[in-house]
Records
---
Amino acid sequence: MSVQDVRFDGAVNWPSNALSEVPFRVYTDPEQYALEQERIFKGEAWSYLCLAAEIPNPGDWVATTIGEVAVIVARDETGAVNAFVNKCAHRGNLLCLTNKGHGREITCIYHGWSYDLEGRLTGVAFEKGVKRQGGMAPEFHKEDHHLQRLRVEELCGLVFGTFSDTVADLHSYFGEKVVSGVRRVLEGRSVHIIGRSTQILPNNWKLYFENVKDTYHASILHSFLTTFHINRLSMPGGINISDDGGSHFSYAKLDYAAEDADYKAANLRSDTDLKLQDNSVVESVDEFGDQISVMILTAFPNMVLQQVRNTIAVRVVRPRGVDKTELEWVHLGFDSDDEAMQERRLRQGNLIGAAGYIAMEDGCVGGFVQRALQFNDDDSGIVMMGGHEAESQNFRASEAAIRGFWKKYRALTGV
Amino acid sequence: MAIDDTVRLGVAELYAAYADCIDDDRLEAWPDFFVDQCRYLITDRQSHEAGLKHGVIYCASKGMLIDRVTSMRRVLMFEQHRYRHLVGPPRVTRVEGGVAEAHANFFVARIMHNGETSLFATGRYLDRIDVSARPLRFIERLAVLDSQKIDTLIAIPL
């Protein structure tokens, strides 16, 4: 059954063709959620799978999900990375029961069917029967029962996969602008994981993905930097949006030297101001030599790459039902980091994640929206800040990247 | 080597007082449970066993603890809630040079302002404690969570 054959009679209707109006039911409707699984996560989109660094050696594999679909990513003996569904072709049992592992083959615990690391069925227990009794029917051929494979491509050590045979190659899918954002942070550097955790968000996945694209809320909801006088809102920044709208990166520059002078001045300021006792949580260096202190990149539909000062992280967005999302934080360091940089990343790590000074609120605000929409979702929200289009802009008081999300979303879901 | 019972009792009292401080919402006093050059981390078992130093909260000085409290009280937006700690009996495993190593299990329930109560975190404190002076203070406290999954957010320290 192809995607087009799936009928979703109850799918949400848009009030107009404008990208700046979003019907609230899109966050609450179970049928809409099912449609997204088919047409986005299993459809014409590249989803983030894992870091190549998580499976460095032949035989290494990780188990993950695209949307709600369980998949395995494995490095085979030739060094190539493959991805296939984590579902035995025999009775549908989950093949890999842990998050990661290593081996020459993957064997189902249920009836012992085994697969190589390209997803090919290589062994069927008692295929010829026991003592010439039983065995598979003569028309059974192992080559007809390989695991469903995904297309896989890598970009700067990030591994992506898609169920689609027709979606463009990864580079074309994200477009030059977004690819340049990924390269800015990761190209030519070898990464390792310095920490990871998963936040359970009590809201629809789109509320989080929109939040990451929402450059309007950042200095309002997250008052940490402004409270402590450590943010210069007038510094230049902008938003780059892919042509299809789905992916983006926003950035803001920082005058590092001026900020350093500010710290020193802060010690002289009146006692009526709140002050940090320990500035090391924000003391950062211009790591990429371009003065950009914050870069937030989304890769539609499930990944965020962030540089917040000297914290680098991949965030993976995993829908878990219409009103639940898992948000995995994968904190990165580079192999070239010296001791001072390692410590800097750890201290600045307080800014982000489930307890992050400029991220904590994002963990709860989606849940507040979700609660407000309970049986009160007949109307629409508006995203008109900065106009009605989803074009790149050289200012950040804008909801253009959110509109881009809906542009891509509506193109894929056909609603 | 036998460990002095007064050290054991002192550590038990420290653990109880620490939990009371948080659960009674006297967070301004929370940094005083630590020496100035301290480390306080919230991490998880998998990360800890892998030798990763990253923490969901990573404080490397008493000043950073104070900043956590100031931020929580004055800056950060979240729904009001409290914790109830259940901390198991501490085991002191070693005392050397005025520093005790100790650990204890914890269960922490989160009670939202509307009364909704859930088991928020389980794990183990892994501590190094300065027992050379009174009151005893933490040199290092690692709150090692059993799970890598955190519901919604962590505002109040564990």
Note: Residues 5-145 of chain B form a domain with the Nuclear Transport Factor 2; Chain: A, fold (CATH 3.10.450.50).
---
Amino acid sequence: MTAPAVAPTSDLRAPTADRGRRAGRASSPVRGGSGGHKPGQSRFGVTGVLSIIVLVVLAVLWLLPFLWSLATSFKSEADAAATPQTWLPAGGFTLQAYRAILEQGNIPTWLFNSLFTSIVITLIVVATSALVAYAFSRLDFRGKKWLYVATIASIIIPPQVLIVPLFYQMLAFDMVDTYWGIILPQAIAPAMVFVLKKFFDQVPIELEDAARVDGAGRIRVFFTILLPLSRPILGAVSIFVFIGAWNNFLWPFIVTNDASLLTLPVGLQTIKSAYGIQYAQNMAAAILAALPLILVFLFFQRQIIKGISTTGFGGQ
Amino acid sequence: MTTTTAKAPAATADRSAASDRSRTTARRRSGGSNENRIGWGFAAPFTILFGLFLVWPLLHGLYLSFTGQSLTGQGGELIGFANYVEAFGDGAMWRSMLNTFWFTLLSTVPLVVIALVLALLVNTGLPGQWLWRLSFFLPYLLASTVVSLFWIQLYSPTLGPINNVLATLGLPQPAWLQDPDTAMIAVVATTVWWTVGFNFLLYLAALQNIPDQQYEAASLDGAGRWRSLFSITIPQLGPTTGLIVILQVLASLKVFDQIYQMTNGGPAGTTRSTVQYIFESGFTGYRFGYSSAISYIFFAVIVVISIAQFSITARNRKGAQR
């Protein structure tokens, strides 16, 4: 429908690409070209122009806190504490704050701790959840119903109400101030079991039957047939779990004390209390801490958005 | 019963048929103990972690709530309902509950409404889709500590850009996080900025699942964009909205991180949440038993609210089907 409107000249390349992409998303409803509306109406009508204005204003509003913090992180401490504050500091931009933070801080260590614990948590959650979800979906074993009911019911338990008994348990296991102490209590995600079970339920059983007729056992069927089919949902679950673990504050805050074991979010909290009035350094530390996940997002934007949409409701 | 099955959408019927089938095949195939062994083999790793780090602490917490246990190891003997009796008479506990409810109410409404508006705007097919998604979702990727550092700066009474703007406009400049009248609002605004992108993505996904034909039919009937919005889009989003509200209320009730970091519950306890009170009783007051009792009261509140919400949504859905 849009094709004839786009002249195939080279100076229109950008809009062509854009429209082509939009038209390619045939499943999207209200988007340009769908419905019985005249093609131009949605984009250039009064409502369209108003939508653009409102969106631009909101997007700018949403990005401003980043930009302001970014600007502050490149100021000298003197400029960051000057009144009134301006976007462009009197003394020009400088890397002082970053240098200071990287020299005295444990940020690289904390970065490693966050990365390591989040990856291990994600691996454990994905592996154990996929296995048990397969058992729930396809296998018959004694006590299955009870285990399933308990798993689903436990989704409602707020992890925050378990902090005291969990800490007690970590003391007993001698896991306070250890990586395992950070990892193990975060390594269960009943909601993700539910998501994966629902996904496995929808995979046609005939696919497995064929392999089983050929003599493949349950375990082989799981690894060679079901897992490859589940790559997208496993990716979605991984992303969801990883972001949650990466940003978790309360539990690592409780279970770690040793500065060399802190995760990035917890470490930042100590920076804030240690140099409370070093505004530029605070911002530089915050920007450094924000960077890894933002980079990950820029690389895997599509997968992350899809992951949130498919796992956000527990698979609804 | 049979009529409801017949009326159920095709997808559900298919799925239940599939699960019936899988059940019968499983039974047919099950070599009894062998199937049992394999089943538990698959379930074991999760079940062990589940038992150790969820079921056990849940039960142990309940036990602790009936003791005078302290972090130092003293007071482990049972003291009956003393902790619960104390908690119900504890003004600070009630205060934290009220703060939590107030926060939940103040944050849930904008977190649902703004998410919907953003999704509707982005879904009109404007160019630069990735840029809009990026702008609204990016904050969700930040750790609470990063968010708090950003916003403490923004809210700073003298150095913050917010008060700078207000000063230029000649408006009053509150101390935001230090003022009991504005602290809660400030924390809520930060929370909306931080997490609205999540609900926004859920709405966006739901919008893209509304079948085209409905809009085509409506526009053949002469319905304009606004008419379509209110008679197709919003009703079609009903179930999504129900779920987003449920999830949001539950998430907001558990608030701790950003408030603890931005105001530490202050000024004068006006923003202290229940989770913070649980944390403080346990880890700064060293009263594990008492902290566990408050945890359980809080847990009970969450269960009651969840059940109430789910039954309301379920009733609405049934009403809509009729």
Note: Chain B has a mean pLDDT of 85.
